Amino acid sequence: MVVRQTPSRPRSSRWTALGAAVLAFVVGSLPTAAAAESADGAPTTLTLAVSQPVDSLSPFLAQRAISTNIHRLVYDYLTNYDAETNEPIGAIAESWEVSEDQLTWTFHLRDGLEWSDGEPLTADDVAWTYTTMMEDEAAATANGNFVANFEKVTAPDDATVVVKLAEPQATMLALDVPILPRHVWENVDDFASHNNDQDFPVVGSGPFVLTGYEPNRSITLEANPDYWRGAPGFDRIVFRYYNDQDAMVEALRKGEVSLVSQLTPAQADALAGESGITVNDASGKRFMGFTINPGARTQDGDPIGDGHPALRDRDVRRAITMAIDKEAIVERVYGGYAEAAEGYIPSRYGDYHWTPAGDERLAFDPEAANALLDEAGYERGEDGVRVSPDGERLSLRLHVHNDRPDYVQTGQFVEEWLTDIGVEVQGEYVDPGKIGDALTSGEYDLIFTGWAVNPDPDYVLGIHTCDALPVEPGTMRSDSYFCNEDYDELYRRQIAEYDPQERANLVKEMQQILYEEAVVNVLVYPNTLEAYRSDQIASIQVQPDPGGNIWGQDGYWSFWSAQPADAAGSSSGVSGALIAGIAAGVVVVGAGVVFLVVRHRSATAEDRE
Amino acid sequence: MTGTQAPVTAAAGSAPDRGGEGRPGRGKALRYIAGRLLTSLLSLVAVMFTAFFLFRILPGDPVRAMTEGRSVSVEQMEELRRQFGLDKPLPQQFVDYCLGLLRFDLGVSYQYRVPVVELIADRLWPTVLLSGTGTLLAALLGLWLGTRSAWRRGSVSDRVNSGVALTLWSVPTFWFGLILIVLLASGADLFPTGGMMTPGTTGAVAVTLDVAHHMVLPVATMVAVLYAQYLMIMRSSLLDEMGGDYLVTARAKGLRDALVLRRHAVPNALLPAVTLIFLNIGLVASGAILVETVFSWPGLGTLFYEALSVPDLPLVQALFIFFSAAVILMNLVADLVYPLLDPRVRS
Amino acid sequence: MSTTEPAATPEPRPAPRSPGPVDGPEGATASPRRLARQRRRRALARFWRDYRANRAGLFGLAGLALFVLVALAAPWLVQPADLSVTRAPGLPYQPPSLDYPLGTDNFGRSVLDLVIWGSRVSLLVGFLATLVSVTLGALIGIIAGHFGGATGTVLMRVTDWFLVLPTLVLAIALATVLSRSVFTIILAIGVTAWPTTARLVRAQTLAVEARPYIERARALGGGHLHIMMRHVLPNVMPLVLAQTTLLVASSIIMESTLAFLGLGDPTTVSWGGVLQDARNAGAVSSGVWWYLLPPGLAIALVALSFTLCGRALEGVLNPRLRDRS
């Protein structure tokens, strides 16, 4: 038996302190809070501006970020990620151990857990959730990938869950699967059509309870005062819908909402100077870059698509990456709110982040890039565009998502830089659907990509293995048609490596291969820009700390920890302006109606005469 | 919305031409009605077919769009494809679609996983409220100003009226909305920047006031851009009437000008404007895409625009049919009502 | 106006065959060439005199001329390097100054340069989209009007069907389906805007063909093509021209709308595109008004100019309307 860490609470001392403080606050101020509430008449509310529609509130089906983020808040998971370090820590499970053969994981659950309807949360709920996903295809829609390697999940007693694996799986502490109450969900007939949005409050186990949902208008969560880690600071969280980024910022300025995420650099700069508003400039969870078509093919090796043949030449790919000035992208596209990238995993994940050593670097150097192409036999033609030794002009398509302004701007820079090394570029700024079509059909040369990286990097590494290539053209997991035996070997070793340090080393080696082959080229890690009203939110926990984000965390820390400021009234009430506005409207309408009625009367009277 | 409507002119006008086709005599009335009904039905069927095929050639894979950025396996994507019914061959999908239409079943949205009929029903009234109010106010304002303009043709107020109307008509709707937001919502802080109501508002009076407050800017945007058409059409048709013999007679009989205007000229001149209103009511459903987008109004327009990017095929199809059907229906109503309204046709 | 417009329009008078700058040779039916030229010159002079009387029309014409001049002169006013994103001349988001009269955009390019350069694409789209839709509309309208019967009915049913499809919705769908380019936008606008013209032209064709001299031409053995090209088209042209001018205005607005909805080609500088960039950069909420205001004003001014011209033209060419404006 290998006994792994058994953290009964967040490891960091700061967290313990905060937790204690929260607890003290909640317990100590209960009567006061109640009094304040009755005097004020309104519970404290944290309002968040969002735009993405909820696809489903059923954890079995939900794919969209907004839905999974809400599930983080209303359901507990087997494990969580530490607020400061992003390392896995306990949640429903308090401790765990792995068998010698690395195939059996035993989780010991926390005592006294309860669902929000008062029923006890037991190992049976956990086993039922996983088993249902393994047996019912519809239930596997959203998170089936997490249990694909499970052979059997059992609950020998109320506090113990045993998972038997087919193969060793290093991601067992990163199972992002909400645990569901069996006593509610086993009554569901068809998981494919059950959206969990009919009976409110929705029975859950997280720090908040889902109490209301109006599609594309609002989602309301109420605090769960009995949450085992302590009650949240705010009584209520409201997600309010805006479909325009500017409208969100205006709403923040006016105090209609307390928190706005995904700001543009210009918006962050404008908000930074305003009183009552705090801008949070968080290190990026995403990477942004482009992949080069290395000769798209199926798993059997049948070529697909029409990628430019010269791109199979590693020198050409490396020359292309050397022609791009990442620092300039950071400054001019992101206004400094980004980090120039080399390794595949963003720097916020310090354990996995890799940077090339000095002599391995493909630094921005157009002259060296030109020399490399000259040497490799790509001569410039009369129009300045290079021609391959086979006589093909180096004229490439560049596919860019048109719904992301930062991609579009970066694309325009890349076009101009590649022209400098004699590569002609045809910018294809198209919607994401077409980007996907171009990728799956292999009909592209350079194509933009970007992924949000989870604390566990397994998936984003897996999308560049030979296994991810399509069996036949169409659906595939691959993001690049990259296929390299050494890389695949390392991938297989890292998933079976239970020692975090060893695994991190393997992951770094994989990134080195990606970098050298220059098929997957990461340009920057864009920062996450958010702003909140400091006159409504007194404090809020970022993840990781320092430098982390508020919205879209891998835990519930931000909303759970947020403390209302003294005068946290987000309700501005009926203003004089409102009354004036309405009065004006009424006058106009009234005048119009009177006018028409008078006209109509006289007209009918005339007719009768 | 200002798109390709160009009826700020006297001669343009997208109304079905009732001049070319013989107007119904009393005996032909039934045949006329039947003919119109049949034509409308044919249009509707054509629209339904268009909806299916037009959107099938949209780029993109709904399954990929829905799972973007998610760590899903190929099996999960296939499962989703099966749930969406996209694993069947196209002819089979088309047959299912047609059979569904016969049962008024328009399918289940990919994005929301609820029947699209429910989604449309839910979003319909915000759109009708916004767009309907906008159309109504634009019509009232346009008709009123148009009457004044025609009556004082050539005066300073006529020139100013027409000039302002045409200028506003030339402004792109979305830009006007943005400028209003910058000036009045974020600048002067008089109105909310978007949305339809403040969440958590309760009580009938409070809700009504709140919604009205949210409506001011979007409605103002719509009215500003739309009222020119009514002004121009009213102005020119009233000028037409004013040259009519009966008016000359009425004036000769010594009736005061105001009375002549109110009792004789305006009611007759209203007819073309009423036709325009009918046709624009048909466009109410789809007319507010831009305004809804700019003001985050939770209506059908935003629903359609979002659905298109997935593409959420059942929803896009249903909305397309719905938008077109509204126009067809209102055209039909205009065709049927017009002969009843126009005294010259009746006689 | 839908009610009285079609059949009643112009009475047979020697229509000004070649109104305005479009001087087509198709009107030359008279045998002595000089006589024809003289008559044409006289018609032109009369046309100009009538047009000149319309002050709004003159304003429109002046505005139009200004914008066309700017668009034509753009290559001399703006250096291509000034539009480069990697070598942008200024810093991002500089407010208006002497160097940059309208400030700079998010890359540090001069907004004035963008507006000047954008006039090319916006006007081009406006003109070409109108050309597509007017050609299509005129063709279908004349054919439907001339042949009548089954052909006419079928063509008009198709027109009706296009009329009920919501324009913006259809244009968005088309722009999404086709590849991202200026020509896609042109096609999307052109394909959605033609039915109005078709209806108008058909009605006018019916009116023209009811005239006695068409009977005569037919009796003298004039074929379909001859009648349509020689007699109907010249008489329909004036109305079509007025319609064209108005359509250009709505096409330019439509272009900006589609660009604003993100359906344009982000690498071509157009007014709508600049507005979309401004909105994407968060200009509305970050107070960068100089990025937002000029392109919108430019669109409004051009659209207004075309509208005023179109109305003036219509007033001159359509005598029944003349005393109204």
Automatic annotation (TrEMBL), chain A:
It comes from the Bacteria. Its main location: other. It is found in: Cell envelope. Residues 1-35 form the signal peptide. One of its GO terms (biological process) is peptide transport. GO terms for molecular function: peptide transmembrane transporter activity. InterPro entries: Peptide/Ni-bd (IPR030678), SBP_5 (IPR039424), SBP_5_dom (IPR000914). Keywords: Membrane, Signal, Transmembrane, Transmembrane helix, Transport. The chain crosses the membrane at residues 577-598. Residues 87-461 form the Solute-binding protein family domain. Pfam families: SBP_bac_5 (PF00496). The keyword Lipid metabolism does not apply. One of its GO terms (cellular component) is cell envelope. Belongs to the bacterial solute-binding protein 5 family. PANTHER family: PERIPLASMIC BINDING COMPONENT OF ABC TRANSPORTER (PTHR30290), PERIPLASMIC OLIGOPEPTIDE-BINDING PROTEIN-RELATED (PTHR30290:SF10). This is Peptide/nickel transport system substrate-binding protein. It comes from Marinactinospora thermotolerans DSM 45154.
From TrEMBL, chain B:
Residues 1-24 are annotated as: Disordered. InterPro entries: BPD_transp_1_N, MetI-like, MetI-like_sf. Its main location: membrane. This is Peptide/nickel transport system permease protein. It is found in: Cell membrane. The chain crosses the membrane at residues 33-58, 124-145, 166-191, 211-233, 269-295, 315-341. Pfam families: BPD_transp_1, BPD_transp_1_N. PANTHER family: OLIGOPEPTIDE TRANSPORT SYSTEM PERMEASE PROTEIN (PTHR43376). It is a multi-pass membrane protein. Keywords: Cell membrane, Membrane, Transmembrane, Transmembrane helix, Transport. It comes from the Bacteria. One of its GO terms (biological process) is transmembrane transport. One of its GO terms (cellular component) is plasma membrane. Residues 124-334 form the ABC transmembrane type-1 domain. Belongs to the binding-protein-dependent transport system permease family.
Automatic annotation (TrEMBL), chain C:
Residues 119-310 form the ABC transmembrane type-1 domain. It is a multi-pass membrane protein. CDD domains: TM_PBP2. InterPro entries: MetI-like, MetI-like_sf, OppC_N. Keywords: Membrane, Transmembrane, Transmembrane helix, Transport. It holds the Pfam family BPD_transp_1. The chain crosses the membrane at residues 56-78, 121-142, 154-175, 181-201, 236-261, 288-313. Residues 1-36 are annotated as: Disordered. It is found in: Cell membrane; Membrane. It comes from the Bacteria. GO terms for biological process: transmembrane transport. Residues 9-19 have a biased composition (Pro residues). GO terms for cellular component: plasma membrane. The keyword Cytoplasm does not apply. Belongs to the binding-protein-dependent transport system permease family. This is Peptide/nickel transport system permease protein.
